[in-house]
Amino acid sequence: MGLQRGRLFWPLLLLAAVCSGILVALYSSAVELHLGPRTEGAGDAGTRANLLCRHPLSLAVQRHPRFRNLFNLSTPVLLSGDLFTPQLWDSLSQHKAPYGWQGLSHQAITSTLSLLNGSESTRLFAVSRELLPGCIRCAVVGNGGILNGSRQGQNIDAHDYVFRLNGAVIKGFENDVGTKISFYGFTVNTMKNSLISYSNVGFTSVPQGQYLRYIFIPSDIRDYLMLRSAILGVPVPEGTDKGDRFLKSKLINTKFGDLYMPSTGALMLLTALHTCDQVSAYGFITSNYQKFSDHYFDRMKKPLIFYANHDLSLEATLWRDLHKAGILWLYQR
After folding, report:
1. Number of domains observed in the structure of the chain
2. For residue 2, is it within any domain?
3. DSSP letter string over 52-95?
């Protein structure tokens, strides 16, 4: 589980998933599994070599001269109490969040992880792999303007699991983005900013549902403290939200290096790639992004602005290359 800076796909250890409703839903989520209709279509991609997958992504990875050295699908996606050891602490203490715990409180980390000690904390899906369909199809829905007028809602909802993130506005856009949501991913910073920035278009609370699971992306100690507080049902402590470094960007070596972090969409998409058998990406940046507004829920067209905290050009190139390699399917128009 060591961290290798030479790799594009860093181990996704520093993610933690808990269910909506926290402790109560942690129990009920393991009882019943709701899957959407299974249809064959343009959204087919793959992750593991499975005979039931028409285009297993793992085979595409293995056959690709570049990506076969970058993917490690055996790496645990979620960080749980069972994984914590003195050796892991010593190793990850050499790296800054979210890749490690450098400068973070040992007590805060251990007290949070000790609450993630059930079997439901070690797997992204609510049931074991053996009980799941032979080919798990996942859709990751970004918030890009390319989805406005796309009428992709039915195709999105046809996937077994749907990942959404940040300002996941659904009401009024059901035909374009669907209604199904299995996972909601965020950092403390992106969640709070979304609640402030997108309240006028209907995003007034984080998604909720009995079988919904939240994916926390800890970018600093505050994220661990928030997760602990959420599980215990106590007030969230104050703190400063700092960014993470996931994709190796040239921005790290500039004066904006301390600001750089990958987008939440990138984190969710790579999480799905390490977990699902087929992955479809909707609402992500494409080469013709200038034709569309920043977000699909914008009331007036707004240009996508490339701020220093995200390397969207790097992400766009990566999604394009993964699409060409048959590792994921990227919605384009």
Report:
1. 1
2. no
3. T-SS-HHHHHHH-TTGGGT--TTS-SS--GGG--HHHHHHHTTS
Name residue, tokens 């920035």: 197
Tens of pLDDT, residue by residue over 262-306, are: 677 888 888 898 888 899 999 888 888 789 888 888 888 887 666
Residue 324, classed as helix, strand or coil, is helix
Range of the domain at 57: 16-330
Q: By three-state DSSP, how is residue 322 classified?
A: helix
Residue 300 sits in a domain whose CATH number is 3.90.1480
Both structure tokens of 146 = 């390319």
pLDDT digits (tens, 9 = 90+) for 192-233: 888 888 888 988 888 888 778 888 887 777 777 777 777 777
Encode burial over 248-258: b for 16+ CB neighbours within 10 A, e otherwise: ebebeeeeeee
Residue 114 lies in a domain: yes
Check if the beta carbon of residue 214 is closer than 8 Å to that of residue 19: yes
What span, in angstroms and rounded, lies between the C-alpha atoms of 62 and 178?
33
Q: What is the largest CA-CA distance in the chain?
A: 53
Q: What is the CA radius of gyration of the chain?
A: 19
Task: Scan for tokens 């699902």, then name that residue.
Answer: 276
- The pair of structure tokens assigned to 117 is 């000690």
Q: Are 270 and 220 in contact (CB under 8 A)?
A: no
Answer yes or no: is 219 within a domain.
Answer: yes
pTM for the model: 0.76
Q: Looking at the domain assignment, is residue 29 inside a domain?
A: yes
Angle between helices 312-324 and 264-273 (to 10 degrees): 20
For 260, residues 6+ apart whose C-beta sits below 8 A from its C-beta are 243, 245, 249, 251, 252, 308, 309, 310, 311
43-82 confidence digits (pLDDT tens): 333 333 344 677 778 788 888 988 888 888 777 777 778 8
